[in-house]
Amino acid sequence: MPVKSKSTQLSENKLARNEPSGLYAVVDIGSNSVRLVVYDRLSRAPLPRFNEKSLCRLADGLAETSELSEESCRRTIEAVRRFRAVADAMRVDRVDSIATEAVRRAANGAQLLARIAKEAGFKVQVLSGVEEARFASLGVLAGFHQPTGVVGDMGGGSLEIAEICNQGVSEFSASMPLGALPVQALLAKSRVDAKQRVDAILTENLPHGLSRPIFYAVGGGWRAFARVHLASSAASLQVVNGYAIDARDARAFAKTISRLSKREVATLPGIPASRIATLPAAALVMDRVLKALSPERVIFSSLGVREGVLYSQLPRAEQALDPLLEGARDFGAARARVPEFASALVRWTDDLFPVETSAERRLRVAACTLSDVAWRDHPGIQAAESFRRLIQFPFIGIDHVERVFLASTIHARYAGSAEDPVLTGANSLLPASSRRRALVLGRVLLLGYRLSGSVPEILAGARLRIGTDTVRLEVSKTARVPDSEVVANRLKLVADAVGIRRTQIIEIV
């Protein structure tokens, strides 16, 4: 029997929990954009209920004048006044407001914050470079399962670099004036000079030997870079969070992008309109950072400073929870007929795979938790719609391969065919052994539902035995569930999945 990690055990114990909690929001006043994100609550796997940004470009001209322009301040005031109205209308319980590089550098930053307080009622905390690096790193810790590596957060005004390991942030961090807007200004003068200036700043601020195998890329510019790479490579799964590419490929792609004109960038597939002007700057910094750090892989994160602020407020015990299992529980329990049946399914499948790693186990637990999300759908669309829904759902703590495994498992749970065209493309990310495992687990979940009618006590009185030549279902008398043709058919699907012809249903004492 595999050993459960502490975080997995904690999450499993709360599978059927459904606690109400108030809305929480963050207003983020950045160098390029000002954003409001309203989350469903303070939790380990928060979901954004509202997300809006305004491109105020506070850092425009800051390097030359040392002040925020009146026009950018006006746009910022308009944005935060709207955000206050939205937060009030949504009855948000708490709003935290932060500001970063542009405001902390500007000679008139304090005046802007005073106007924001007066006109919108937000008391804004200006983050130092060290604090910004720490919160970006906490955002990565929040969004991935036990990540280790170097975090880079490229914003509109600055680049923050920090190291994460052992579920914490190391003492080293650096904040450099290598945001999208200042680097865009450098590129407008000379690409060669811009490259040399970026390299000089990195050399001055990054310690020798910081390199780690994984580099986590955070920030809107790098998310746009990932979207363009996904679209250009015709990737089967167009999801930014958890998207991983070889660092050499990332550098080659970045070099190409950094040389493009604004008109050429506008023709790129997947490019957000708001990032056309600054994408070459984001690409140039990506190239030079990867050269300086020499990681093996780049993993893109949709979570950053805002989620780090949220994560920092959670109790330590909640921070230690598995974000995938928490998110699966929140999504699955709310849609299940019998939320507590998920725990019964975990026990029902505990002996299904003789050898199971901790990583495989957490995926099995998540699949059990999500196994009843489509019960209201028409049977003819349950499998395909479940796959489409889960392949794109904003789960965190999961990579692309794991995402496809979960979606494929639930597809099989709803009796979807392994030849279903909906699986084409995405399923190619899975090795053959994982595709088979997803099929077997999904068929066993299907059998569990059919046998028990979602009654945990009935499932507890049954055991599935997969032998070398027979798949046997043992049902105790206490369960009082006689054999049926439908149950036999579902057992046959399990046998087909494992490659065994003979099935047997027996009643045991």
Report on the architecture of this protein.
- By secondary structure, the chain is of the alpha/beta class.
- It has three domains: 121 residues, ATPase, nucleotide binding domain (Nucleotidyltransferase, domain 5, 2-Layer Sandwich), CATH 3.30.420; 178 residues, Exopolyphosphatase. Domain 2 (Nucleotidyltransferase, domain 5, 2-Layer Sandwich); 187 residues, Hypothetical protein af1432, CATH 1.10.3210.
- Helix content is 48%, strand content 16%.
- The strands form three sheets. The chain has a six-stranded mixed β-sheet with strand order 8-7-6-9-11-10, sandwiched between helices. It has a five-stranded mixed β-sheet with strand order 3-2-1-4-5, sandwiched between helices.
- Strand 12 and strand 13 form a beta hairpin.
- Helix 3 runs parallel beside helix 5 and helix 7 crosses helix 8.
- The two termini are 25 Å apart.
- The N terminus is likely disordered.
Question: What's the structural blueprint in terms of helices and strands?
Answer:
Layout: H1 6-12, E1 24-29, E2 34-39, E3 48-54, H2 62-65, H3 70-89, E4 94-99, H4 101-105, H5 109-120, E5 124-126, H6 129-143, E6 149-154, E7 159-165, E8 168-176, H7 180-189, H8 191-205, E9 214-218, H9 220-232, E10 244-246, H10 247-258, H11 262-266, H12 279-293, E11 297-300, H13 305-312, H14 316-319, H15 323-335, H16 341-348, H17 358-369, H18 382-392, H19 400-413, H20 432-452, H21 456-460, E12 462-466, E13 470-476, H22 485-498, E14 502-508
Helix pairs in contact: 3-5, 6-13, 7-8, 7-12, 8-12, 9-12, 10-12, 15-17, 16-17, 17-19, 18-19, 19-20, 20-22
